[in-house]
Amino acid sequence: MKIFLKTEDEIELMRRANLLVGSTLGELAKHIRPGISTLELDKIADEFIRDHGAVPTFKNFPNPYGPPFPGSICTSVNDVVVHGVPKADEILQEGDIISVDCGTLLDGFNGDSAYTFCVGEVSDEVKHLLKTTKESLYLAIGQAVAGKHIGDIGSTVQDYCEKEGYGIVRELTGHGIGREMHEEPCVPNYGRRGNGTTLKANMCIAIEPMITLGNRAVYLDSADKWSIRTRDGKVAAHYEHTIAVRRGQSEILSSFEEVESIVGNIIQ
Description:
- Strands 8-7-9-14-15 form a 5-stranded antiparallel β-sheet.
- Strand 4 (about 95-105) and strand 5 form a beta hairpin.
- It contains 5 helices and 15 strands.
- The chain is α+β, with helices and mostly antiparallel strands.
- The chain is globular and about 45 Å long.
- The chain has helices at about 10-30, 40-50, 125-140, 150-160, 255-265; strands at about 55, 75, 80, 95-105, 110-120, 165-170, 175, 185, 205, 210, 220, 230, 235-240, 240-245, 250.
- The chain is about 30% helix and about 25% strand.
């Protein structure tokens, strides 16, 4: 397993790519409402990313099970955990949730972040899922320091979310990131403390809890060969930050600041 430690200059380039992702999510936050299609959101994101001198990393991303990814962002609505394909006939409704995963390639380095949005008013049950998932992300980031292990990250997410009765998706993980969108190591949302790869300063990883309201079983949608859905049809939440591992305290390279200046912070 080859893990690429980044130089300070490379981390700065990654910060720029990730902050552009944050700005893209912020732009989308202005448009997420009942009545808009997920394809319209994809067009907004594609134009915004390209206007800022970057390329949407997900566009035409290869697929071992079917055609390349057709969109510039992943738009995962309700029971779609991740990798939702933007569609003209998928219209957001009051009470939906939508997880938007966005990647940019800027000056040779990748940014990657995801945020789950409420469409209008959602139930208290769903709000609690979103709040718990997002809190687990920040708790996990707190474990991503030099000398800790990948298992410390995963076990933190697992312990925090399972005590609320939620499902921890195991088939999909976070990942290393840099010049490639997906690098080593894998970063699961479950595990045992003290196990797995030892974290080193200047490793860059994407941590992304994918948590379900029901049980953790998922399946690949046979229609689009991309969308990962919950088997029980219950909703799922997904939040993601790209971080740089440091000594003492990790450094978040992406940002939810622009999103939450518009939608507010669900953690209150």
